[in-house]
Structure formats: structure tokens, C-alpha cells
Design goal:
The chain is built from 16 helices and no strands. It is mostly helical. The chain has one domain. The chain is globular and about 65 Å long.
């Protein structure tokens, strides 16, 4: 499979997933603040940190942050930037994705830049963010039903699940490390509301409450356990990493490579722990390792599949790998 095609499939799904995740946390935070009094430092700046934005210069008010994370085209993590990047990746590989997927990508690319989307944003934030969530869900559903489930599909799935795993870890880490800096908040209605918000930000509120539990457990530990280790929930870190490994094995044709090795190491590290181990060793430290490891896996994906090292010629003739790299750069 041509590496550029694999790369665009991978990033197409990552950007779609990123747009949905951003919309979900913005909507949940907006609703949370309507129902609870939340300290100022816990209101909107943590949403920037979830996206890795630590140098935001403006005051982190509701309107400033929502506008920045929704409409700012200079912000690579904004909804409008993510949808534009997804559409551009789809445009480049129109011969690989189905016509139905391309039509939806193009339709929503035009919609997000229309007055209709601006009007929806102004009159009903919940409806607007709900529409963004449905964009990703609809396109993934169409892709699943209309694309051949070959190598291109595996890279599409890989990008989706890797982005999910990273976002789930970031959301959990921000909750634990940033939102509750004061011990007196623990166990209060605000604390419980935040854990509910975390579940809703990861689409896990209903699955969490439908999951049987053998014994009572602290709400925070129960939520962390669910989002870290649940083998059936499609946004838990454990499930996402397992799906990434499945796609890596299929895309690699059964040949072990750096990507699969790093995934096996991280999955094995998680398998050797339970929530008691995580709480004892530090949830923040655990989540930091997961996020760092996912970043390493992302770099390995680039090195292994998209920009492999070029072997120098050994007999005076250009190597095939060199020719491929030059063609890709051109």
C-alpha cells in the first residue's frame, strides 16, 4: 500500500475524532456550569490543557475559550481546523474512500463555514455541538458500511482509536491533576459533578452505570477504573489500545514492527495493573506515562509506515526506497 494513502487515512480519522472530542468536552462543560457553581480556575482553562494548549494569552472566559476551540482557524485543535484537515486528507485520497464518505466530508466542510452553522452556534450551543458529534459518528458509520475493510480501513481505524486513547487519558489527567488542586473539594457535589462530566465527555455515562460492580468503590476510583481498564467500552484506554494493536497487526501483514512492539509494551504495562495499583502509584503518573507512550507510538507510526528511513545506495545505483521517498516528496 502506498504510504501517502495510509497516512491520509490515518489522519482523516484522527481529525474527525478530534473534532468530536472537542465538541463533546465543550458541550459538557457548558452544561456543567449551568447546574453547579464551579471555582473560576476549574471552569474553562482545563479544556485548553486537554488539547495541549498551555500558552493561551486571553482571559479564559466561557466565550473566549469556546470561540477559540470552535472557530479559530489558527488553532490546529479547533473544530473548524480539525474538520478542514479531515476534509483535505479525504480530498487527497478520494480514490480510496467511498463517494458517500467524500460527499459527507465535503458537505460538512461547507456547512461549518456557512451562516447556518453560525446561527446554530449563536442560538443553541448544545444543538451545535451535538451536530459536530454526529458528523464524526455519521462519517465513521458510512465508512464502515461502504469502504473495503483492507489496509486503508485498518489505518483509518488505527487513527481513530489512537486519538481516542490519548483524549481519554488527557481528560482523566486534567480532572485529577488540575481541577481538584484543593483537598477540600474531594467528595463534594462539585467533585461528583466533575466525575459525571468526565464520563459524559467520553460518552461513558450510561455504559458506566450499566456496568455491574461486585463491591462499593470510591466514585473517582470507579470512573478511573472504567475509563482505564474496561474491556468492552469503546473509549476506554485498554480497549482502544487493543483495537490499535489489531489494526497494526493487520496493516503490517503479520510482520512485527516498532509500532506493534510499543503497543504490546504499553498494553502489557496496563495489564499488570489494576485500579488499586494505579491509585497507590499515582493516577497522574500513570496517565502521564500513557500519554507519553501514545505520543511515542504516534512517532513510531510515522517512522514505520509514512516516512521510513532511506537506505543509501550500495552499488552506485539509486535504491528503490530512495526513489519512493523522492516521489513522495514531489
Amino acid at each position: 500500500m502506498i504510504s501517502r494513502v495510509a497516512e491520509h487515512c490515518y489522519w482523516l480519522s484522527r481529525y474527525l475524532e478530534r473534532a468530536e472530542n472537542t465538541a463533546r468536552v465543550l458541550e459538557v462543560n457548558h452544561t456543567l456550569l449551568l447546574d453547579f457553581h464551579v471555582p473560576v480556575e476549574q471552569q474553562w482553562r482545563p479544556l485548553l490543557i486537554i488539547s495541549g494548549i498551555h500558552d493561551y494569552k486571553e482571559e479564559a472566559t466561557a466565550e473566549n475559550v469556546q470561540d477559540f476551540m470552535t472557530w479559530d482557524e489558527k488553532n490546529p485543535f479547533s473544530i473548524v481546523s480539525s474538520l478542514a484537515a479531515a476534509r483535505e486528507n479525504g480530498r487527497i485520497i478520494r480514490e480510496v474512500i467511498s463517494a458517500e464518505v467524500w460527499e459527507r466530508l465535503n458537505f460538512y466542510h461547507l456547512w461549518i463555514r456557512s451562516q447556518a452553522s453560525q446561527n446554530m452556534y449563536a442560538t443553541s450551543r448544545s444543538e451545535f455541538y451535538g451536530q459536530i458529534r454526529r458528523i464524526n459518528q455519521l462519517i465513521h458509520g458510512i465508512a464502515s458500511g461502504t469502504m473495503s475493510h483492507g489496509e486503508a480501513w485498518e489505518f483509518f481505524r488505527f487513527g481513530m482509536y489512537l486519538e481516542r486513547a490519548c483524549q481519554t487519558a488527557r481528560i482523566l489527567d486534567v480532572k485529577y491533576h488540575t481541577l481538584l488542586q484543593k483537598v477540600e473539594y474531594v467528595g463534594t457535589p462539585v467533585d461528583n459533578a466533575h466525575w459525571v462530566a468526565i464520563l459524559m465527555s467520553c460518552s461513558g455515562y450510561e455504559p458506566f452505570h450499566k456496568r455491574p460492580r461486585v463491591q462499593p468503590i470510591d466514585p473517582g476510583a470507579a470512573v478511573a477504573d472504567f475509563l482505564l481498564f474496561d474491556p468492552e467500552f469503546p473509549r476506554s484506554i485498554q480497549r482502544c489500545l487493543d483495537e490499535c494493536r489489531t489494526s497494526a497487526v493487520r496493516a503490517g501483514g503479520g510482520k512485527r514492527n516498532e509500532v506493534e512492539t510499543k503497543l504490546v509494551e504499553l498494553i502489557g504495562w496496563l495489564d499488570a495493573r489494576d485500579i488499586q495499583d494505579v491509585v497507590r502509584d499515582g493516577l497522574h503518573e500513570c496517565l502521564t506515562k500513557i500519554v507519553d507512550s501514545i505520543h511515542d507510538i504516534g512517532h513510531a507510526v510515522d517512522r514505520t509506515y509514512f516516512n521510513p528511513p532511506v537506505e543509501p545506495p550500495t552499488n552506485g545505483k539509486p535504491a528503490a526506497a530512495t526513489q519512493t521517498q523522492s516521489q513522495r516528496q514531489g
